[in-house]
From TrEMBL:
This is Prepilin-type N-terminal cleavage/methylation domain-containing protein. InterPro entries: N_methyl_site (IPR012902), Pilin-like (IPR045584). It holds the Pfam family N_methyl. It comes from the Bacteria. SUPFAM superfamilies: Pili subunits (SSF54523). It comes from Clostridium aceticum.
Length: 893
């Protein structure tokens, strides 16, 4: 193809010669056009990446301020970290001014905060001066809680910019000497020591109020580098100004870090749970409409004691100083809600330490876990750095912060700060305040040193901080005392009256003779019930009896009102066995308090037993005590107990029954002779007195065991026909349950049956003895000499002889006579009998008649006194009492 107007030769030469000027111009035009298209596209791609990077920078700053986003605890409350967690506020925004001499930005942290974009949160990477410096303003933060840095010191990402910008300052003394555009460009691009975006331009921070609270805006001027900041008092509006359209903004809203509503609600829930642990659930009533009390108060009958925690530096924990006086004004905690203290009675404890034997907790979980363990670690590190390695080594502010924030083992609020407990009033009028210091952690407690004992919800300090945001729940007396008191006094008085009846019987009880009938324990035993205290000896814990009649304030338990006593007079139990084990087995009142028993003597010299309920407060010897007394004159007449008179009568009856067992009943036959029966009448001799151990297994007493135990080998005409008395458990006893004594004088053939009386001591020869005795003399069951006269008739024939034997003593003793036939003037033949016998045992005696080898036995009766014996089996006889016999001596009482 040939170009128009050129020969072939010419065209070839042209091709060999290169591009023409026109061609070059055309090519350059095309390339310029393409470059104009490509360069903006590359710039756009670069801005997109820088935008992403700037978003990442803002998110990192956000994390430094409030911690990792969207992390929540088990209660659903967002976990706050970073600067806000430690300082409890957004970082202050301070403006920097240029130091042209040193070529650095210098922070004006002693000035007011600049919140409209020209300040930066310098506290994220560098600690400011602590609050208290005279150079600082009142609202400067207290950096004692600062645990940063939270960000690395900000460096200029494009250091070559720094050199170019510094060239503009040549010949200039101050930044204000530059023209406004150059100054603005310098402030935006010189970012060494300032937070900047991905373009190397300074970031802007604005604080502004919202309906839910202050928020923090972090702003990059974006790809254009243009931004219009709000005037003081105005809000930033991204859409209002065209220059702000490409700004990159990240807002930290108030609710993201403050969580006031959630933490307040959670703290109220914590306090309500503690309230439930103390007095039980609300709005629970019995059938009478009386509020049912539960929790600690139900068991312990009082509000929990508040004890001050003491720091244990070896164990790195809080210990409880429970042996000191209660700390009522804010410094103590109710440790008894989750852990029982030592039991009442320990000599090292204060008098008002509660008796934890009634404790049925825990009523709340042990507050072991610190909700903010990182705080704990940092606080411990600070403590270790202190000079003395203990709390006193810290200054007052640090010590207060340690006590408030180190809450492992203490009750705390949703902000992880220790709760405060204050008691107001006294006794039954005591109120308990449970307080959280609230969001600001500030609280002003009453100062007892100036007579201030009441918490003031409106109290503020000179800085304007104080109790305004405190969260308070109050347990009033009508919530814990009055509902428990309704009906409890009457119920407790009935318990006391029941105890009185168990000890002494009914007040109005009289016997058939119109005499006061003493019953219960005293009626049976004849003495005050012994009082015992629990000795918690490690090897051998047991009940120990108090010494008698020391009349000191010694309170004990009458354990033998329900425990079986070895004394046979004990006929209990007199009350239902109380619940509990060992030292916890106590008689209790309607409030579940221990009932106290004390034996004392009044000014009139009367001994009395006082039974006391400590009342609603559970403390003995206070004004709400309820008690009744039992005086000795209610069961004694002079030095003799009223029931002892009856026991004397009963003992006489017992001794008479024993005497009757020996002699038989006091009865007479038709001829007026006393009938001798019982053991002596049947066996004809004293029983064997055998040593028998009493139920204590220690003491032995001589007892007539043959009265209830079969005895063989008495001899013809004598036979054991017992038992003559009921077999005893161990030994024969009187009405006091004391062993009956037997004294046999074999020379005088006399037996004395003795009761030691009320004191149980046998001493008949003593002038002041109260012994009761009965006697059995020989003359009551033997006669000295008797004559047996009679005739034995035989109508068929007269035997040559008849042998007559009278078995008048045991063990083969007999008298024999041989008779010869005779004739009666009025009848057939007879044999006359005339038999004289000495020392004859009275009773049914065996008369043996032998007629020509044939034996016949006849029982004849030999009595005491009388005249003529009736005829029996044609044997006539009478017994003549010797003239020298005398009546037995009178019996003593």
């Amino acid at each position: 193809m040939l170009l128009k107007g050129m020969t072939e030769k010419t065209q070839k030469n042209y091709m060999k010669g290169g591009f023409t000027l026109l061609e070059i111009i055309v090519v350059l035009s095309i390339m310029s056009f393409l470059a104009a298209m490509i360069v903006p596209f590359i710039g756009h791609m670069n801005n997109t990446q820088k935008t992403k990077d700037t978003h990442e920078i803002l998110r990192n700053i956000r994390t430094a301020i409030i911690g990792t986003p969207n992390v929540f605890d088990s209660e659903g409350i967002r976990i706050i970290g970073g600067y806000v967690k430690d300082m409890d506020a957004f970082p202050k925004l301070y403006e920097a001014e240029w130091d042209n001499t040193n070529k650095v930005w210098k922070w004006k942290d002693d000035d007011e905060e600049v919140v409209n974009g020209r300040g930066q949160p310098r506290g994220l990477w560098e600690e400011g001066r602590s609050l208290g410096s005279t150079d600082l303003t009142e609202d400067a933060p207290d950096y004692s809680s600062w645990k940063g840095p939270y960000l690395y010191y900000p460096k200029d990402p494009y250091p070559e910019n720094t050199k170019e910008l510094e060239k503009q300052l040549k010949g200039v003394d101050e930044l204000d000497d530059l023209d406004p555009d150059d100054k603005g460009r310098f402030e935006q691009r010189y970012v060494e020591g300032k937070l900047s975006d991905a373009w190397g331009r300074v970031l802007y921070f604005i604080k502004q109020d919202t309906a839910e609270g202050p928020s923090l805006l972090m702003i990059s001027a974006g790809p254009s580098g243009k931004i219009v900041l709000p005037d003081p008092g105005e809000k930033y509006n991204q859409n209002a100004d065209k220059e702000n359209e490409d700004n990159i903004v990240l807002e930290i809203k108030h609710r993201e870090w403050y969580n006031l509503a959630q933490r307040t609600e959670a703290t109220y829930e914590i306090l309500e749970n503690i309230r439930t642990a103390i007095i039980g659930p609300q709005n629970v009533y019995d059938r009478e409409g009386i509020r049912v009390i539960g929790g600690y108060v139900r068991d312990m009958n009082t509000l929990p004691k508040l004890y001050e925690p003491i720091w244990n530096k070896e164990g790195l924990r809080w210990d409880w100083d429970e042996d000191k006086e209660e700390v009522e004004i804010g410094k103590g905690q109710p440790r008894g809600l989750w852990e029982a203290g030592l039991s009442l009675g320990d000599p090292d404890l204060a008098e008002d330490v509660p008796d934890y034997s009634r404790w049925l907790g825990p009523y709340i979980d042990y507050p072991r876990e610190d909700p903010f363990p990182d705080d704990t670690k940092n606080l411990l590190e600070e403590l270790k750095k202190s000079a003395l390695d203990r709390l006193d080594g810290l200054d007052e502010e640090d010590k207060k912060r340690f006590q408030q924030r180190h809450v492992g083992g203490k009750l705390s609020d949703a902000w992880g700060e220790a709760l405060y407990f204050i008691k107001e009033g006294s006794g039954n009028e005591t109120s308990l305040l449970m307080i959280s210091a609230g969001a600001d952690g500030e609280i002003i407690l009453p100062d007892p040193s100036i007579g201030d004992t009441h918490y003031d919800k409106d109290a503020v300090n000179p800085e304007g901080k104080g109790n305004k945001d405190n969260i308070v729940i109050k347990i009033t007396p009508n919530e814990w005392y009055e509902p428990r008191n309704i009906g409890k006094e009457e119920e407790t008085m009935e318990i006391l009256q029941e105890l009185r009846r168990a000890i002494i019987g009914r007040v109005d009880a009289i016997d058939a003779m119109g005499r006061k009938n003493v019953g219960g324990y005293i009626g049976d035993i004849g003495d005050w019930p012994k009082l015992y205290y629990w000795d918690d000896d490690f090897d051998d814990p047991s009940w120990i009896e108090f010494l008698e009649n020391d009349y000191e304030e010694l309170y004990g338990q009458p354990i033998y009102l329900w425990k079986k006593k070895t004394d046979p007079l004990w006929k209990g139990p007199y009350i239902t066995e109380p619940w509990g084990i060992g030292g916890n087995q106590l008689i209790r009142d309607a409030w579940n308090n221990e009932i106290y028993f004390e034996i004392d003597r009044n000014s009139d010299g009367n001994e009395y037993l006082r039974i006391t309920s400590p009342g609603i407060d559970g403390n003995i010897d206070t004004e709400d005590d309820l008690y009744i007394d039992i005086f000795d004159y209610e069961w004694k007449s002079g030095d003799i107990a009223m029931m002892d008179k009856k026991k004397i009568e009963d003992t006489i009856k017992i001794l008479e029954r024993v005497r009757e067992a020996f002699l038989g009943a006091d009865a007479f036959d038709a001829s007026g002779r006393r009938i001798v029966g019982g053991y002596l009448g049947d066996m004809g001799d004293w029983p064997t007195f055998t040593n028998i151990s009493s139920s204590d297994g220690i003491t032995e007493y001589q007892q007539p065991q043959d009265l209830w135990k079969i005895k063989e080998g008495a001899g013809q005409g004598f036979e054991w026909r017992g038992p003559y008395i009921q077999k005893p458990i161990d030994v024969l006893r009187d009405a006091w349950g004391k062993p009956i004594h037997f004294e046999l004088n074999e020379n005088e053939n006399r037996l004395i049956i003795i009761s030691g009386g009320a004191d149980g001591k046998v001493d008949l020869d003593a002038d002041d003895n109260d012994d009761i005795a009965r006697y059995i003399d020989k003359s009551e069951w033997k006669v000295g000499t008797i004559t047996v006269r009679g005739n034995i008739y035989n109508e068929s024939y007269d035997p040559k002889e008849i042998t007559v034997k009278l078995h008048h003593k045991p063990k083969g003793s007999k008298e024999k006579v041989i008779t010869v036939p005779g004739r009666s003037e009025t009848g057939p033949g007879y044999h006359g009998i005339n038999l004289q016998v000495e020392d004859v045992v009275c009773g049914k005696r065996n008369f043996e008649i032998i007629i020509e080898g044939e034996k016949r036995e006849i029982d004849i009766f030999i009595g005491i006194g009388g005249t003529q014996s009736p005829t029996k089996e044609r044997l006539n006889f009478y017994i003549k009492r010797p003239p020298d016999e005398v009546d037995p001596p009178e019996e003593d009482e």
